[in-house]
Amino acid sequence: MTKTALITGVTGQDGAYLSRFLLQKNYRVVGVKRRTSLINTDRVDPLYDHPNFSMVYGNLHDASSLYRVISEVQPDEVYNLAAQSHVKVSFEVPEETVDSISLGTPRLLEACRLLCTNVCDVYCKFCAFYRTETDPDHYVLSHEQIDRKIDELVAVGGNQILLQGGHHPKLGLDWYLDLLRHLRAKYPQVNIHGFSPPEFNHFAEVFRMPLEKVIGKFKEAGLGSIPGGGAEILVDRVRQRIAPRKCDTDAWLRVMEIGHGLGLRSSATMMFGHVETIEDRIEHLDRLRQLQDRTGGFTAFICWTFQPEHTVLKAEKTGSHEYLRMQALSRIYLDNIPNVQSSWVTQGPAMGQVALKFGANDFGSLMMEENVVSSAGTSFRLSLEEMRRLIQEAGYEARQRNNGYELVDVAETALTA
């Protein structure tokens, strides 16, 4: 069966060379050309006369154009020479289906991710961020250091911090409660979205206290909601392979159920593309769906692909096509979770934009600080203006929200009315 390769920049030296190489390997090659820079038809180049070579017009940096080109060509592989990237793809979702699962107005959250410490004794194989107490670059942030970061957030109108810190073996209950009380008193307008289920299970063990009591005390001290981190894949066989010291599936879900019962809303996540099977992914979604049927406490679902650079766990990097298909499937399966967030932090801005056509109605946060994913070799940054532009170029209106998905800005249509 002949494979199809979609290539940008085929009229350049590198593009022409790659095109000829793939044609020799019996590929069908389709070049992408911007309409503003037409092919010089006076040029005599055997490439353009090859029976398996053709050209299409489009812009792979624009979501609607990218979708149109990929839908038209149905490539097996995409080579973006401008970004020096190559992914294998298999798009089989019809456009009308994609449109039907794209939800409303994409929303933005201005937030700051704070890692109060990088000391962790779980040693997850997929994590490049953790340190031990003996590592020279380990740290525990002081209140003053944390305040400086939040001051930056507040100055640009931010309304939430994501507060996490791994499993520090020696920080006590009072350290965490003092921090929460301090933040709540000094920044009452900022929601504290903090501490994932594995951390709460760690706290219960270290503090020798029931989970219900730990979560209750954190809420009383100022915790506003719980992030969905540490879910990875909610199948114990997989968890034992990638993070054997982290809490099991039932323990992860129990934290969320207790938190929902106390009035704390949370997000749900999935990190895939490592040792799990397709069946494991479906089981993960089903466990989330069952809990949401009982509690209704999940506000959003976010999935992303495993980032293998600088980690102990080794796996072939999952392509963007797999990410988009998994997100679209999640939107269909998790119809009881109201929002789906695209993951531009791991997938890149362009693919985050395309994800708005594959079920996402949330473009995530303006990340003022991000350490964990960048430690694994992936580092993307966007300004608020860039985020708004990407949403608008995809054909949507950008709005700012809070953690409860309430709109906190004024619609541009209202401003111009």
Can you characterise this structure?
By secondary structure, the chain is an alpha/beta fold. Helices cover 39% and strands 17% of the residues. The chain has a five-stranded mixed β-sheet, sandwiched between helices. Helix 7 packs across helix 10 and helix 10 runs parallel beside helix 11 (278-295). The relative contact order is 0.13. Mean pLDDT is 77; it is low at 36-44, 82-105, 370-378 and 413-417.
**How would a crystallographer describe the biggest sheet?**
5 strands, mixed
State the separation between the terminal residues, measured CA to CA.
56 Å
Strand content: 15-25%
The gyration radius over C-alpha positions equals 23 Å
Average pLDDT value?
A: 77
Set out the fold topology.
Elements: E1 4-8, H1 13-24, E2 28-33, H2 46-49, E3 53-57, H3 63-73, E4 77-80, E5 85-88, H4 95-100, E6 107-115, H5 143-155, E7 160-164, H6 173-186, E8 191-194, H7 197-207, H8 211-221, E9 225-226, H9 236-242, H10 249-261, E10 265-272, H11 278-295, E11 298-305, H12 320-333, E12 339-341, H13 344-347, H14 349-354, E13 362-367, H15 372-375, H16 384-393, E14 399-400, H17 412-416
Parallel strand pairs: 1-2, 1-4, 2-3, 6-7, 6-13, 6-14, 7-8, 9-10, 10-11, 11-12
Antiparallel strand pairs: 4-5
Helix pairs in contact: 7-10, 10-11
Short description:
With 417 residues, the chain is of the alpha/beta class.
Properties at a glance:
417 residues; alpha/beta; five-stranded mixed beta sheet; 39% helix
